[in-house]
Amino acid sequence: MPERRRHHISSAVIATKPGGIDGVLAALAALDNVEVHAADKGKIVIVIEGPSTGVLGDTLMRISLLDGVIAANMVFEHVEMEGNEADDGQRTDAA
């Protein structure tokens, strides 16, 4: 039986300090497994991917500590089970 691995995908919203959005966007661009989907009026919507909820949480914590960030909050998390095509994954709501 093949080993089934989990792949976690999460969305998050980041609130930035006034005038801080450009610096935060530049810092996010340098992070692995983080993709910016929208940015406007001091808010940024991102997607984070990784092998576990812990990795996603660690990444979100690092983002929350970036210069210019007021808050970084996970909104949704989805878990894909890799290695078994019959499995549709598992949905978890984080917020």
TrEMBL record:
Keywords assigned by UniProt, alphabetized: Chaperone, Cytoplasm
Gene3D superfamilies: 3.30.70.920
Subcellular location: Cytoplasm
Top-rank lineage group of the source organism: Bacteria
Coiled coil spans: none
The keyword Cytoplasm appears for this protein: yes
Keyword Disulfide bond: no
Reported function: Chaperone for NapA, the catalytic subunit of the periplasmic nitrate reductase. It binds directly and specifically to the twin-arginine signal peptide of NapA, preventing premature interaction with the Tat translocase and premature export.
Family: Belongs to the NapD family.
Oligomer and partners: Interacts with the cytoplasmic NapA precursor.
Protein name, entry field: Chaperone NapD
Organism: Shinella curvata
Gene name for this UniProt entry: napD
